[in-house]
Design goal:
Blueprint: H1 3-26, H2 29-52, H3 77-86
Helix pairs in contact: 1-2
Amino acid sequence: MTYVLTQAFTDEVTTRLDSYDRAALQADSASLQQLAQGVPILTGALRALLDQHQIDTNGDCAACPRAQWRRRARCQLPRELSVLLTDLSNIDHATGRHALRPTS
């Protein structure tokens, strides 16, 4: 997948999440209906991510990237999601390998 296509998908998801945030702040009947439709989509997406990042008995994840010569990496996704879902102030913007990604 090219960078341009990846950025287009990222922008689309960001736009959708922004619309959910606006709907939550407005809290009128149309906004609540939009949220009622969006929550199952978001929970389904999180479940799909967790399913993709199943760990084995050693704590290794087949979905996490790794160098070919190294063994599988310890999966951090379940822990990171757990922390984020309990306290959004833990979000650390632009770290790791996505730190150089351009912001829009």
